[in-house]
């Protein structure tokens, strides 16, 4: 039996490969009314083990980038296009993305963020429904319709891109700075003193 319990998916068995490769369903984390909703592609090995998106090295980069933008991980919501780890950390297939789409749309609708930030090519193309040149479009904001509702989507490179190509760090940080402009936190510069 598959269903959503609030923002969490429980008991989904739509994708045979993903059900076989996961140890758990990895749901989004963060406030249910966050101004910023970050969307990655799928859980990796660390996420599958810990049950939380963006942990490990990519999570550290994301946390550092958020802090540099004057934000805190606890103030944003983080999720993925698919909630189960693909075998061998491959990209999720089109059918898997389609199978999980309504879960993502429901989460976006219920959180109703000021902006959705896509972390990498897969989520950007999934939500914008077109080819995306992530490096060239990073930091750009697009108005789209998600689940029948208008939504802003901000493109960003994946945090891991900065690990493999340090020149992407500036692009990543600039995208997060743009995202921060959509939050109430940006007006409270005293938050920076917390770090």
From TrEMBL:
It catalyses: Hydrolyzes single-stranded DNA or mismatched double-stranded DNA and polynucleotides, releasing free uracil. It holds the Pfam family UDG. It is an enzyme of class 3 (hydrolase). InterPro entries: UDG_Type-4/5, Ura-DNA_glyco_family4, Uracil-DNA_glycosylase-like, Uracil-DNA_glycosylase-like_sf. SMART domains: UDG, UreE_C. Residues 27-181 form the Uracil-DNA glycosylase-like domain. Its EC number is 3.2.2.27. It comes from the Archaea. SUPFAM superfamilies: Uracil-DNA glycosylase-like. GO terms for biological process: DNA repair. GO terms for molecular function: 4 iron, 4 sulfur cluster binding; metal ion binding; uracil DNA N-glycosylase activity. The keyword Transcription does not apply. Keywords: 4Fe-4S, DNA damage, DNA repair, Hydrolase, Iron, Iron-sulfur, Metal-binding. Belongs to the uracil-DNA glycosylase (UDG) superfamily. Type 4 (UDGa) family. This is Type-4 uracil-DNA glycosylase.
């Amino acid at each position: 039996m598959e269903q959503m319990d609030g923002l969490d998916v429980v008991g989904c068995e739509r994708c045979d490969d993903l059900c076989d490769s996961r140890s758990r369903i990895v749901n989004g984390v963060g406030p249910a009314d966050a101004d910023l909703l970050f969307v990655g592609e799928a859980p990796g090995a660390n996420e599958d083990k810990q049950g939380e998106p963006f942990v490990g090295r990519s999570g550290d980069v994301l946390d550092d980038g958020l802090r540099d933008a004057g934000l805190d991980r606890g103030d944003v919501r983080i999720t993925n296009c698919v909630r189960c780890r693909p075998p061998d950390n491959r990209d999720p297939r089109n059918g898997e993305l389609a199978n999980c789409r309504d879960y993502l749309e429901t989460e976006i609708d219920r959180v109703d963020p000021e902006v959705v930030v896509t972390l990498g090519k897969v989520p950007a193309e999934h939500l914008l429904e077109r080819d995306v040149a992530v490096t060239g479009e990073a930091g750009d904001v697009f108005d789209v319709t998600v689940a029948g509702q208008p939504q802003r989507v901000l493109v960003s490179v994946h945090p891991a891109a900065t690990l493999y190509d340090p020149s992407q760090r500036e692009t990543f940080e600039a995208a997060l700075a743009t995202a921060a402009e959509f939050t109430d936190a940006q007006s409270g510069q005293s938050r920076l003193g917390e770090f």
